[in-house]
Structures are given as C-alpha cells and as structure tokens.
C-alpha cells in the first residue's frame, strides 16, 4: 500500500490537497489512474492513459476492496461528450475512502457537448450572410464563435395593444411581420410578466392571429389550476401582461453582425459576419448538442457517494425543452410548468427544473470543486432527489442561459431519505447567468434543511441572486422540512438588472417557514437599481417566510426596501444590527421585529466595511456611500400635498408631492455652493407619473416660478429628462451650485421619492 508521504505527493501532483476529505493528510491513496482525450486500453498509467470509460471500468474493479482513495487524473484537452458520462453507486468510494476525478496539475480538461459547424459558403453577399450545414441531429439554441456567444436572430416585440393575448395565442401577426416570415413556426416569443419569463413558439398563423405551441401556451395562460388562482395574475393573458419583449429565430430577422438562424427545414445555419469581407471558415463555430455532460446518480437504497469531481471545465451543454412544444412556461426562479395535464398542486411540487451540465441525483458526500461551468444552454449544476451532505465549492459559473446552482427538491414533506439535507454551496464565483431565461436565479434551493450558502460572489443577474425556500403559503407547504438554513457572507452586486425586465425579487429571497435560519454577513449592492419598479429588494422575506434572522448585512442601492417582509402570515422574523443607506417600513407578521439597525447612513462605518470586505469568494471591493449634499437640507416646493422634506430624508419609500398645477417644482438649498457632479432622481412609482422634467442648478436662488423664466434666469443651468424617471435616474451635471430645482414641464402633481445631490 502507498505510504502516507507518497499519498500526499500523489495528491499534490493532482492538485487535490485542498479539496480532499477533512482527514486527507492521513488518508492513503491506493492508486492513481490516468486518462486523456485520446486514451485507450486499461493500463491507465501516465504513459498509457485510458479513456474516461476505460478509467471508470478500472475503478469499478478496485472499488470493492478499497484501501485508500482512488484518484483518476485527467490530462488537459477536450473530452467530447456525445452522451452523458455516468458515475453511479458502483463508482463510489468504500471503506471510508473516496473516488476522485481531478485535473492533472496545471491541466484544463474540458467536458464538451459541442459539435463543430464548418464548410461555410457565402449566401447573401449584400447582407454579408454566410451559411454552413448544420451538424447531424442538431437544432441549436446557442452558437459560439471562437469561444464567444453569438445572438440568435431577434426582432422587436410589440405592446399589448398590438399583440393582445388570449388562451390560444397572440394578435398582431401582420403588424409584427411574423405573418410574412417564410417559417413563422420557428419563431419564439419572449414575454416577461413581473418575476416570470415565458418563451413559447408559434405553431401557426391564422389571419392576424399567432396560434402558439401547446402545451407551452396553455401552461403560460390562466385557468390551469396547477399554479393557483393568485399566481394566474401574472400569466400571459392577465392584466399584468404588457406585451411581447421580442420575437426570435427567423432568417428575416438577421440584421446585426453576429446574428444567426438555424434552419432545420433546409439543414443550414445562417450567420451574418461581424465585419465586411470576413470569412467564417477561419474561425471555430460550435453549437451545444448534449444536454447533461456528467451525471452522478444513485437511488435512495443505493446512492452515489464519497465521490469528488475537481478542476474540470463543463462547456457547451444544451437544453432541449425550450425548443419543443413544452417551451419555457416560467413559474418562478427558472422552474417551469410542463405537460398538458397534471395534479392540482399550488406548492410547486410538480414544477420542472432545467437540465444541467452536471446532475447529482441522490448523492451522499459528493463534492464538485474547482471547476468551471460556461457556455451552457440550461443550468450549471443541480443536486436533487434527496442529495445530502454534498458540496459545491470554489467553482466558476459564467455565460449560462439559466441558473448556476440548483439544490434541493420541490416536495415539502418528503420521507427522510429524500430530504435535501446539510448541503453546502460555498466560495463560488457566479457572473452573467440567467442570460436567456431571465427569471432564473444564481443559486436556487427548494425545501432544504441545514443548507449552507456561504462566501459566494454573485454579480450581474437579471432576477434574484440567492433564493431559498418554496411554497407560497399554500396549505400543503405550511409545515415543510425547511429549517436551520444559513445564507452567510455572500457578496451580491447588480441583481434584478433593469435590462432583464424582471421584477419583484431580491438580492436574497426566501419563502416558507425556516426555523433557526440565518441571513448574515452579506454585502448586497444594487438590486433593481436604475429600474422602473420599487420591488427590487435587498433581503426579501416573501410570502410565508418565518423564523428567519437577518443580521449584520450591508445593504446598499436597492430600488425597493432594504428588507421586505410584507405578508402578515410571515411571522417571527428578526432584522437586527444591519447597515443600509435607506429606510424600510416595519416587518409584517406576528412577532417580527427590527432592532438596532443603522439605516439612512451617510457613510459606512468601519465595522460595516469590514463585514462587506470579507464577504464573497475572495476579497471584495466595497462601494462606499456617495455623500449626498441635499440630505436634510431646507426644501421647498410650489405647493404642498405631502411635505417637501420627504424627498431628501434618505427614505426612498415615501414621497413629497405638490398639488396638481402648471409646471410644479421642488427645490433644495444646499447651504453653500458645491461642486455638483450628479443628481439622482427617484421616481415614486406613484399616481403622478414623473417624466418630462428639468433639473435646474444655480449658485444664486432660483426665484422664478415658471419653467421658462427659471431656465432663462442668469446663472441657471438646465438639464432636461424627457423619459419616465427611474429608481433612480442619474443626471450628470458637472458645475458648482447651491440651489437645485426639479420642475415639471407640464401640468400635474410633482411627486419625488428622493432627490440626492452628489
């Protein structure tokens, strides 16, 4: 048997010392096997490596009599996966030892589901469109050129008045131009309603009607009774529907460099080159063709266990459901409703998760670490069907159509062997995910117990950052297995991105009663900041969220509340010792309290800075609060419905308001001339729409009441904002000034949630 010193040397060569079991220093290595993309045979040595399948076959012969860890070392290069690589109970560790699949020191093994597109010929010289044969058996939703994603051909959407929705489809076939396309049946409509994203295909055109594919459209419309009557208020045929965000996937829609269309009718992929005269034959074009690259699967009686995957890149996986008749009927957080019929259940039991590049099913003690997940058409990794005591740590996730990490299940009260228990998601870096299915979240968890989501860095997500809990206060989910969960020390920036078009979420979002659960030490900066709504929250204790403690978090620049707990049936939540630059109403629910929080801060104290800097997967750069010259300074307005001081009190959840009048104004005296770089205008999202207004800046008092006269006054600079104000709209100024005025051009009441002068 290998000595302890030799074992440590072998692990070091494999890059494994940091990811082995806690007792790794004392754990022997029974054997190191070697695999490479071109490997063959059964020797599995450094000079005669095996294939993946060959190495797995050898491991299976060694597992029954393990006397140390079995380490499979992967050489660098691409391991093309036309099918899923499977590891099961027979590939698991025994006798207290582990089976480890790891990158060789310095190597970058890539599990790839890509097929190459080649043989390009110029098709339309005037438009610089080329075409090449589609790889056999593919109908791609993604295309990558030299490792960079390219956009599928897309055109404008339509407002509700042009494209009214009903139970079978959409109007506006002629006005949108879809009726005139050669293959309208290839077209997909993307619709966004609050926190939901729907992507359904067109089945046919009938007059001016777009008949949509089923069951996608049925599951996106009201009346299924499979999501509950309340949730039908956000269906495609509800009052919340405002129109189609865009139509996608037709040859005629190719009009921007890099756009493409896969024509499965003639078997060609069409592509508009980036630069005139470019020849795509000089590049590498790849389309994902395999759904799941690696599956670690077991059963409740024979789980997959004691297995580590380390240092592998998982790339170019697809997800087939969205292009089928099922489409993407979003329910929440990247899960969908599928099937023509199904059980009536309002607690989300039967919602469908996306396919993932790595799929762990009924795992025990599984670790996935140090790996990269990129260029994926579904999700990154999912742990489900009662996976327990397993870890996803120190991985990188980027350029993914759906969420990065999904942990847990949708059954509120499973048997003990199917409880998602004591799993850990830690020290991962997650950026630019949910790129296609924009209602997905970076890290999702359903009904979990003893979950730890710790020290992750999350940035640039269209919807929520971390979502833990499920159930929406439905009767069948009021006493679920949720308990003892910890969301700690994460750095989450720029979520609910306004460009994503999704609303009603938070940097950290929860549902359901979760006794003894904690949200602590997180740095949350920018949640629906510069958005249109005021429901982009910092910590969002939604629905029946109960028994949660929110403490020692730093929460800045949120379009809504720094902590939101609106539902009266969410009980005994506590928010204490947090730091924030704004204010929020008291928590709802019996026994909920807010204690010793430092709100409306003008600057972050050193203790808060230390918490923020230590959050995330690595050292975090903290964005300090920008000084606001207007805060608390004397404010006046042309008339008063609610006090002028409510617009500069560091509370973005109340509003000043004038009476309805011609060209109303609000004005603040900064007390002295300041170098004014920028003014923030916060739309109250209230009855009086805030648009078509001017910001006036002067070193001298602005005395004229009328807009034209005020703008013409000597020394006054005028800045016009024609569109609807956001939360906030940022206006660059760049001059000295003591007096700042906001004034409407028309006749209305002027209402301001907040005005900040920097």
TrEMBL record:
<dbReference type="InterPro" id="IPR006626">
    <property type="entry name" value="PbH1"/>
</dbReference>
<feature type="domain" description="Right handed beta helix">
    <location>
        <begin position="424"/>
        <end position="578"/>
    </location>
</feature>
<dbReference type="Pfam" id="PF13229">
    <property type="entry name" value="Beta_helix"/>
</dbReference>
<dbReference type="InterPro" id="IPR012334">
    <property type="entry name" value="Pectin_lyas_fold"/>
</dbReference>
<feature type="signal peptide">
    <location>
        <begin position="1"/>
        <end position="25"/>
    </location>
</feature>
<protein>
    <submittedName>
        <fullName>Right-handed parallel beta-helix repeat-containing protein</fullName>
    </submittedName>
</protein>
<dbReference type="InterPro" id="IPR011050">
    <property type="entry name" value="Pectin_lyase_fold/virulence"/>
</dbReference>
<dbReference type="InterPro" id="IPR039448">
    <property type="entry name" value="Beta_helix"/>
</dbReference>
<dbReference type="InterPro" id="IPR008979">
    <property type="entry name" value="Galactose-bd-like_sf"/>
</dbReference>
<keyword id="KW-0732">Signal</keyword>
<dbReference type="Pfam" id="PF22633">
    <property type="entry name" value="F5_F8_type_C_2"/>
</dbReference>
């Amino acid at each position: 048997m290998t000595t302890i010193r030799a074992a440590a040397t072998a692990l070091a060569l494999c890059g494994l010392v940091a990811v082995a079991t806690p007792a790794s220093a004392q754990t022997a290595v029974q054997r190191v096997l070697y695999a490479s993309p071109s490997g063959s045979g059964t020797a599995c040595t450094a000079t005669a490596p095996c294939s993946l399948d060959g190495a797995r076959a050898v491991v299976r012969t060694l597992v029954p009599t393990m006397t140390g860890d079995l380490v499979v070392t992967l050489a660098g290069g691409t391991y093309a996966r036309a099918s899923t690589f499977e590891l099961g109970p027979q590939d698991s560790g025994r006798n207290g030892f582990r089976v480890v699949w790891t990158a060789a020191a310095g190597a970058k093994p890539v599990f790839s589901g890509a097929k190459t597109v080649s043989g390009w010929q110029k098709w339309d010289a005037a438009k610089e469109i080329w075409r090449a044969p589609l790889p056999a058996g593919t109908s791609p939703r993604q295309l990558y050129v030299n490792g960079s994603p390219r956009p599928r051909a897309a055109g404008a959407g339509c407002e509700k008045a042009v494209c009214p929705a009903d139970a079978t489809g959409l109007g506006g076939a002629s006005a949108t131009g879809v009726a005139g396309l050669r293959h309208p049946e290839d077209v997909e409509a993307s619709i966004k309603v609050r926190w939901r994203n729907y992507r359904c295909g067109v089945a046919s055109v009938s007059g001016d009607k777009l008949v949509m594919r089923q069951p996608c459209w049925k599951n996106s419309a009201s009346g299924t009774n499979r999501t509950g009557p309340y949730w039908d208020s956000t269906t495609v045929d509800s009052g919340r529907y405002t129109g189609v965000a865009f139509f996608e996937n037709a040859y005629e829609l190719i009009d921007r460099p890099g756009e493409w269309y896969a024509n499965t009718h003639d078997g060609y992929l069409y592509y508009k080159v980036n630069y005139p005269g470019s020849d795509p034959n000089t590049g590498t074009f790849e389309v994902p063709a395999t759904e799941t690259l690696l599956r670690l699967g077991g059963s409740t009686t024979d789980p997959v266990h004691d297995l580590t995957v380390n240092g592998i890149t998982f790339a170019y996986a697809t997800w087939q459901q969205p292009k089928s008749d099922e489409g993407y009927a979003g329910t929440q957080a990247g899960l969908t409703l599928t099937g023509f019929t199904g059980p009536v259940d309002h607690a989300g039991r039967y919602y469908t998760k996306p396919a993932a590049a790595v799929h762990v099913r009924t795992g025990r003690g599984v670790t996935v670490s140090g790996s990269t997940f990129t260029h994926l058409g579904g999700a990154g990794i999912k742990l489900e069907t009662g996976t327990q005591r397993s870890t996803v740590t120190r991985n990188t996730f980027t350029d993914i159509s759906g969420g990065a990490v999904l942990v847990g299940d949708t059954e509120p009260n499973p048997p003990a062997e199917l409880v998602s228990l004591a799993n850990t998601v830690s020290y991962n870096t997650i950026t630019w995910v949910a790129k296609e299915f924009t209602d997905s979240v970076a890290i999702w968890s359903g009904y979990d117990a003893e979950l730890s989501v710790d020290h992750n860095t999350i940035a640039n997500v269209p919807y929520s950052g971390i979502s833990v809990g499920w159930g929406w206060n439905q009767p069948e989910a009021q006493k679920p297995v949720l308990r003892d969960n910890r969301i700690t020390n994460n750095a989450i920036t720029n979520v609910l991105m306004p460009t994503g078009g999704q609303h009603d979420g938070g940097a950290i979002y929860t549902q359901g009663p979760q006794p003894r659960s904690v949200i602590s030490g997180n740095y949350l900066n920018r949640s629906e900041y510069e958005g249109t709504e005021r429901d982009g929250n910092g910590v969002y204790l939604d629905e029946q969220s109960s028994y949660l403690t929110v403490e020692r978090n730093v929460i800045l620049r949120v379009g809504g509340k720094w902590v939101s707990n609106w539902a009266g049936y969410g009980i005994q939540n506590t928010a204490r010792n947090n730091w924030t630059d704004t204010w929020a109403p008291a928590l709802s629910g019996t026994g909920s309290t807010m204690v010793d929080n430092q709100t409306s801060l003008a600057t972050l104290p050193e203790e808060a800075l230390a918490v923020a800097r230590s959050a995330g997967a690595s050292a975090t750069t903290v964005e300090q609060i920008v000084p606001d010259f207007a805060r608390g300074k004397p404010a006046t307005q042309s008339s008063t419905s609610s006090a002028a001081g409510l617009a500069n009190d560091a509370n973005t959840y109340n509003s000043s308001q004038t009476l309805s009048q011609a060209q109303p104004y609000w004005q603040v005296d900064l007390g002295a001339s300041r170098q004014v770089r920028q003014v923030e205008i916060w739309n109250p999202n209230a009855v009086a729409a805030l648009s078509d207004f001017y910001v006036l800046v002067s070193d001298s008092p602005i005395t004229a009441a009328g807009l034209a006269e005020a703008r013409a006054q000597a020394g006054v600079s005028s800045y016009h904002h024609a569109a609807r104000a956001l939360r906030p709209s940022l206006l660059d100024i760049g001059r000295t000034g003591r007096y700042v005025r906001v004034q409407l051009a028309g006749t209305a009441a002027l209402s301001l949630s907040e005005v900040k002068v920097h």
